[in-house]
Design goal:
27% of the residues lie in helices and 19% in strands. It has helices spanning 2-12, 30-39, 48-53, 76-79, 86-107, 112-115, 168-174, 176-181, 200-210, 357-361, 375-392, 395-402, 404-407, 417-423, and strands at 22-24, 43-45, 185-191, 220-228, 240-248, 257-264, 289-297, 307-315, 326-331, 347-351, 367-371, 411-416, 430-432, 441-442. The protein is globular, with a radius of gyration of 27 Å. α2 (30-39) crosses α5 (86-107). The model is unreliable at 438-448 (pLDDT under 50). It starts with a helix and ends in a 9-residue tail after the last strand. The strands form 3 sheets. A 10-stranded mixed β-sheet has the order 3-4-5-6-7-8-9-10-12-11. The protein has a two-stranded parallel ribbon with strand order 1-2. The chain has a two-stranded antiparallel ribbon with strand order 13-14. The chain has 2 domains: 2-121, TIM Barrel; 169-442, Glutamate synthase, alpha subunit, C-terminal domain (Pectate Lyase C-like, 3 Solenoid), CATH 2.160.20.
């Protein structure tokens, strides 16, 4: 149904010629591929059947690391049982291709391109005698819009994604000395929200030359003024610092790989940074390393699936640190609901000046809440706050540091159960007492809400 509807909508809006449509889901035979092509698909995704060709017996315990045939496991004993060969999967697809070729010959098509979108060649048999199938109406699925001949039923023209005008070309040209000889370089650029994934192409050039090691810290420092588009600083590697005076859309720092991102409101602005939205949703999605300093509030799902980056932010929306596996996050203000849902690693520190984080904001199903009491934790938080203040000019960080004795009791350390188990740390129950409550709060798991 989804494939048929997608094809029809794209045809009616004359957009089908610009894209390829890929479909998947229970594709097992050449007949399945043929019907998918007739409904409008050009690419076909296989998953379960090739897995079975490799030896999978569908035990449905892939997530337990106990796969009996050695496919979905890291256990060396179980992996030794794996008997699959590449030729098994190759042979499977040869059989699929042979079946597709047979069906194409019966339908009179020479190439797959010829039969894409030819829904008129699908014939549906009416099941008069079947109690359940006899009332099914397939006319809407098998509907073929009447269109002028100029409208193509498959992809026939290449899209211009505007990469030739990407801002990164200017960054790469400016960073030439740094790329060739690691000479420190700085630069300033205006940025608009049409500039997406700024820094990604530059990071690619660095990776081609220096691999995952990147450049020495501080080699490239670019400052931007304006509103950045989506994925600002995506995949930026070591040695690159991107400073933004303005604001940014979603996915800032996506896949951050060692670089540094600094963002703060325009210096001429009159609003309070700690009360204003600075960046969009899903900041630091899948980041592996690097650090981010944001003098403002971030949107929802901040640091989701973060696996190694360090971040300081003035506040976050719902589902902060969701599925986080490593790294450090410091939040200097309020959070949305469901904070730390599915969090299994890393540490988060939240300044709970409202006193409601543990009772209303945090999903405690997988984390313990502790006071900021250990010397190493205090030193880490203070160091990050000082760096945040110096890099972004954060008034809130400066105030907290000036009133540290009064502010420290309001910090909460969010410590995942699984991370504790790996570190061998002992879990205790009544560990955190908010200065605004009269009794300790026990970290009893509550209802799980993973997004």
């Amino acid at each position: 149904m989804g494939l048929a509807e997608t094809q029809q909508v794209l045809l009616l809006n004359d957009l089908r010629s610009r894209i390829r449509v890929q479909t998947d889901g229970k594709l097992q035979t050449g007949r399945d591929v043929t019907i998918a092509a007739l409904l409008g698909a050009e690419e076909f995704g296989f998953a379960t059947t090739p897995l079975i060709a490799m030896g999978c017996i569908m035990m449905r315990k892939c997530h337990l690391n106990t796969c009996s045939v050695g496919i979905a496991t890291q256990d060396p004993v179980l992996r030794a049982r794996f008997t699959g060969q590449p030729e098994h999967v190759i042979n499977f697809f040869f059989f699929i291709a042979e079946q597709v070729r047979q069906h194409m010959a019966q339908l009179g098509f020479r190439t797959v391109d010829e039969m894409v979108g030819r829904v008129d060649r699908i014939d549906a048999a009416i099941a008069h005698d079947h109690w359940k199938a006899k009332g099914i109406d397939l006319s809407m699925i098998l509907y073929s819009p009447i269109l002028p001949s100029r409208v193509s039923r498959r992809k026939t023209q290449a899209q211009d994604h505007g990469l030739s005008a990407a801002l990164d070309h200017q960054l790469i040209a400016k960073a030439g000395p740094a790329l060739e000889s690691k000479t420190p370089i700085t630069g300033s650029f205006a940025i608009r929200n049409v500039h997406r994934t700024v820094g990604a192409m530059l990071g690619g050039q660095i990776a081609r030359r220096y691999g995952s090691a990147g450049l020495p810290d501080g080699t490239i420092h670019f400052k931007f003024n304006g509103s950045a588009g989506q994925s600002f600083g995506a995949f930026v590697p070591n040695g690159v610092t991107l400073e933004l005076e303005g604001d940014s859309n979603d996915y800032l720092g996506k896949g951050l790989s060692g670089g540094r991102i600094i963002a703060y409101p325009p210096k001429t602005s009159s609003f309070l940074p700690e009360e204003s939205i600075l960046v969009g949703n899903v900041v630091l999605y899948g980041a592996t390393s690097g650090d981010v300093y944001l003098n403002g509030i971030a949107g929802e799902r901040f640091a989701v699936r973060n696996s190694g980056a360090t971040a300081v932010v003035e506040g976050v929306g719902d589902h902060g640190c969701e599925y986080m596996t490593n790294g450090t996050v410091v939040v200097l203000g309020s959070t949305g609901r469901n904070f730390a849902a599915g969090m299994s690693g890393g540490i988060a520190y939240v300044y709970d000046d409202q006193g409601d984080f543990s009772t209303r904001r945090c999903n405690r199903a997988s984390v313990d809440l502790e006071p900021l009491a250990r010397d190493e934790d205090i030193e880490l938080v203070r160091t990050l706050l000082e760096r945040h203040r110096d890099l972004t000019g954060s008034p809130r960080a400066a105030w907290i540091l000036e009133h540290w004795a009064d502010a420290q009791p309001s910090f909460i350390k969010i410590f995942p159960h699984e991370y504790k188990r790996v570190l061998g740390a002992v879990r205790v129950e009544a560990v955190y007492c908010s200065p605004k409550t009269t009794s300790p709060l026990v970290t009893v798991p509550t209802e799980v809400q993973h997004g």
